[in-house]
Amino acid sequence: TTTYYQKTMDRNRRKDASLVGKGMADIIHPRLIANTAAAFLGCNSNLKVLPSNYSVLRNSAVPSILIETAFISNPDEELKLRDPRHQARYAESIADGIKRYFARNPPLARG
Based on C-alpha coordinates, what's the Rg of the chain? Predict the structure, then answer.
């Protein structure tokens, strides 16, 4: 499992999107690893948080991360990706990480 965040600064935003994305990734990624036991499940992955310049991150209107849970080109990992229990475990882990992120970094009130 590898989690990517935007590595470049977006001058159109009030906060540096890469710092916000890294903060999100640093909180969400460990939840994903802990709750899915990715290393134990034998995923062929780096288990890292890394900066990236992927278009999906660079062109997002809001700070974002990209989570690579497994490789569909790997037959063993593909089976895990098709398993509804593994899908639910990943989804719950990501949701837990998002909740933790916003508990530590509440959005600014508008008005």
Answer: 15
User: Are the CB atoms for 1 and 29 separated by under 8 Å?
Assistant: yes
Tokens found for residue 24: 């999100």
Query: What pTM value is reported for the model?
Result: 0.77
**Would you say 61 and 21 are in contact if contact means Cβ atoms under 8 Å apart?**
no
Token pair of 27 as six digits: 């909180």
* H and E: helices and strands count for the chain: 4, 3
Per-residue pLDDT of the chain (111 residues; tens, 9 = 90+): 889 988 765 555 545 667 888 899 999 998 888 877 654 455 544 468 888 888 888 888 788 899 988 888 989 888 888 999 989 999 999 999 999 999 998 887 766
